[in-house]
Amino acid sequence: MVQQSTKASAGLRRLLSGDEAVAAAARELGVSLGTGYPGTPSTEVLEYFATLGGRAQWAPNEKVAMEVGVGAAFAGARALVTMKHVGLNVAADVLFTAAYTNVQGGLVVVSADDPGMASSQNEQDNRRYAVAAGVPMFEPSDSQEAYEMTAAAFDVAERWHIPVILRLTTRLCHAKTLVDTGRFTASAPPETFVRDIPGRVMIPAYAKPAHRRLRAKLAEIAEWVETCAWTRTVEGSGRVGVITSGVSYAHVREAIADAPVLKLGMTHPVPIEAARAFAQTVDECIVIEEGDPYLEETLRAAGIAVRGKDPMYRFGELSVQRVRRILAGDTSAEPTPPRGNPPQLCPTCPHRLVFQALSRLNCIVSGDIGCYTLGVLPPFEAMDCCVCMGASIGAGLGLRHALPDEEARRVVSVIGDSTFVHSGLTGLVEMVYNPPTTGHLVMVLDNGTTAMTGLQEHPGTGRTLNHEPTNRLDIERVAEAIGIRRIHTVDPRELGSDGLETLIAETLASGELAMIVTRRPCALIEERVATAAAGACNE
Amino acid sequence: MSKVTNVVFAGLGGQGVLKVSDILADAAVHAGLDVKKSELHGMSQRGGSVSSDVRFGDEVFSPMIPEGEADYLVVLDETQVDVTRHLLREGGVLITPEVFYDEDQGIEDVDDLVADEDNPVTERNLNVALLGALSVRLDLPESCLLEGVRANLPERLHEMNLEVFQYGVSAARKRLS
Ligand SMILES: Cc1ncc(C[n+]2csc(CCOP(=O)(O)OP(=O)(O)O)c2C)c(N)n1
Q1: Band of the pLDDT at A341, cuts 50, 70, 90?
Q2: Contact in structure between A481 and A63 (CB atoms under 8 Å)
Q3: Number of structural domains found in chain B
Q4: Cα–Cα nearest to A288, from A324, A258, A257
Q5: Is A121 part of the contact surface with chain B (CB cutoff 8 Å)?
Q6: What pTM was estimated for this model as a whole?
Q7: Which of residues 118-137 of B touch A (CB under 8 A)?
Q8: How far apart are CA A136 and CA A153, in angstroms?
Q9: Mutate which of A176, A327, A344 to disrupt the B interface (most B C-beta within 10 Å)?
């Protein structure tokens, strides 16, 4: 059970982002380990947790982070695992079966969704994961709730021995609102290992009863959520009622001041009976939710008469204006705001030289995710596909296998250093195991950091989340051990785009399985060092 | 319920848009108000447009200022005026570095402004200079704003920023009178 604090520090009001609020609660709750993989908008949770003195680690990818978190919870500790929405795709295999186990300590997973794709490749709605995996889900609507729900999530996790998802969204992660901190006290760390073979070894003999146990837990939680404090009605004099959750709640309160509102703090399980009772008190009941029509479908399936939003509002994030439009049933075209300046590769970014060369050689570029995805934009336009982290290698191989030889020889996979460690390694194994007849070239754009998400360390930098030295993964040696025979390491600045062009052309012509590592620190790191040396900056 | 004050800061990555919005938000906290502040991070480092909403009053709901409801629009880079003007309500106030221009002194654009040695404004502290200019129109005690400046910047920058803040205050007062 989460303990409320009686300390003098209780009641300290601070302006915190949603991410920071989660970290603040985690720290107070004595979370033993925070682990995750960077991804906007979730990255700051672990960074802030570390700033507060918590033990925080970047894992090579989300799946490993989730596994480490599960292990810590098996040991009886509180573990927090963080990732962006697409990270949960990577970690899903762990989550689905961890849900069957009797997690001993508390396992809370932060899934930071990005409706509107402020910086993501899709806008998937991870409420679907809560249903599919059978795990409870909390959704805060401001930083105060993010703080309190972190404790509530651990409470539910520990009471029912089940992983719990805390679903945040970009707006909530990054908006700063006032939080009363200092309310919780730490749990005691585990004293000894408690063996529970049938509860944790998921062979069919144990998994069959485990599945039934999971459904029984969910049934209990579904009953609890009907009357728990997180299922809350806000009185109103209006005849139109609104059912909502997350940051949409804040928009709703502003858009329609007099409406009675049923605010759901948990969106899995959904408190069906509370919603049914609420709907009966109003003339019309409207569901306001960002993304998929998840609540709408769930309530309709339970026979509750609700109106949802027009499909046009499924795209992008909601706002006060859009909520007003949904309430009014307005489906006229929305005004398109003027576009500001798009992001670009920094003027001195070492990635630029690589894309200049690839562009001139007219390569077919199988791209990946990171700053270097901006190589798709003019003047380079040197990227032909980009799907998800790590896909550059597999997709490049597929292109090689399927295209006529002449074209196949022009295919190059381009991947960043953090992305290579995240999910490029297995692609490289595939390349050696099922080599295309024309060979293949993988280019690792190693700028010594995870630049896209704000310069995080990763195993290839040889430094921990706190920038302290640790063992370093040697990309070339790993590639060699996997079986890549031709490996070049170059400094793109020294070699220049002409030199790179020659090297790439020669390597492609060799028909070998090859890797070119272009190694040069990110321009932002160099700039940061220079600014720190120069002193003043108000940024 | 008293009215909520809505301020949008806009500019380009690297100009300190987020920092100045943090300062204002903190100032409103010091004044005992409810505050919400919101922006999208991520791409700002790469020179793209950045904007940040700060809202304060007795009770603030949404963290985002509805389009066309900003009371003040503070734009650090003049190229960003056209893409943000629609955020301002009718009768709302636009504040840009233009507030510091003075033809008599030969200061006709930002380059002149930051090059001129007679004023404390630099490319790096323009954000706080504009906050000073904004502050004369806000119903927030100056002490709270200065507290915000101190809380959000390292100590070695305090003196310079307090000076440039005051410079912003007087420039704006001159314009208003
Ligand atoms: C599964 C998944 N996790 C996290 C992210 C967020 N993300 C996008 S690119 C990236 C890594 C970029 O680092 P790197 O490959 O080193 O390239 P750089 O940006 O430094 O050029 C991350 C963490 C994502 N898109 N997908």
Answers
A1: confident
A2: no
A3: 1
A4: A324
A5: no
A6: 0.96
A7: 122, 124-125, 127-128
A8: 8
A9: A176
